[in-house]
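Input sequence (464 aa), recorded before submission:
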Amino acid sequence: MRQYRHRIPLKTGFFFLGYLLLLAVPSPRAEEKNWQVTQETLANGLTIIMLEDRRAPVISLQIWYKVGSRNERLGITGISHLLEHLMFRGTPTHGQGEFSRLVQEKGGSHNAFTAEDHTVYFENTASAHLDLLLELEADRMANLTLDETGFAAEKKIVMEERRMRTADEPAADLYEQVGAAAYTAHPYEWPVVGWMHDLETITLSDVKDYRQIFYAPNNAILVIAGDVSPEALLPKIKATFGAIPSGQPPPKVTAVEPEQRGERQVTLKRPASLPIYVAAYHVPNFASDDSFPLALLSVILAGGRSSRLQTSLVENKALVLAADADYDRTSQDPSLFILSMRIAPGRQWQEAETALRQEIQKVKTQPVTAKELERAKNLVESTFTYGQDSLFYRAMQLGQYATLGDWTLIQKVIPGIRAVSAEDIQRVAKTYLREENRTAGLLIPEGTPVREAPDGGLGGKNIH
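Predicted structure, token format:
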């Protein structure tokens, strides 16, 4: 049920759902939704964001804890994801398995995920059952059962998950190595699932201490979207969450990644069916105006069948089976712009690398066409806006931007995209897609080939 996410959490930070990217209609401008949002903060520091949307008698409840692998340290990497698993072990009031049984009994669904910057728990169900969800989430925030038996069981599950989703998945293995090389001072260096030795040595005491610091109401955001009345809902939230004591302010992450001054190269030799090549560049996040051109650049390069890398490297030259570009502008700290390729059978990775660098040079020296830019804008706008037809994803957007400091940042996305010019695209390509700012990773198959993900893993930075 649970899942962890390795970079990138949400493609370009615009909730790029794959099927929406393919089906989005590029010609009309997507109309933006109204945001009937009420925000409150309880005395214990819990932030509450309520979105009133009465189109159907359903709700999405989400709790965003502002803690992820970014808040860890060497020796306990992976502890955020491990704690996510343990949050389903039950409380003295609701034993193991009761949470899931009660939600499913009401016809609802639930899940959770851990990322670099946050851990999120969510339930989707009919609005008539909202009181139950409030009681269940408040109960496990305050009264989670943590014992050696449950801890040992979940730790074993997480270690096996690492083996299956990273150690046994060539592309994920390569991404992990590239991330470790690209960062030298920032905690984005280690994977969300953690290093295996750390998982082996983390103790129950470590988990209890970590939970006490980061799972207090003053480090959480409660998002409720759907068929709700904020006036009627707020007293219920105060009654369930209000009595939970506030914690000490969690320590801030102050690490800053220094400027990279030369290309770094990673070679990974392991069983795999085909070579994979990755180029990762340090780029800014949402705090920079460059984030919007970078998001569009990722679409121009590898967003859909008419993108440059798909047309040139996959179709015309047949050098690669798949090419991808990923950028997460909604990370807490500056992230990576990642280009990846799965080399076609019978072709040399050197050919593909040369062709990729030629495409990068082209976007630096020649402005993108008006048609390309308009297509990229339409894809981003339509995907971002049409995704809001889903109540769950509207709540996700609220939580995502609220963890960045202000949910109203949502309303700046479309204007930011529309303001990007061809010159902006060319400028950010020149500024960031430089050799000295690049970490290049190469997977060279050796030994017995392994069974890989259907897409070759290039679309699999979200590891579930």
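Checked by second reader. The chain has a mean pLDDT of 91.
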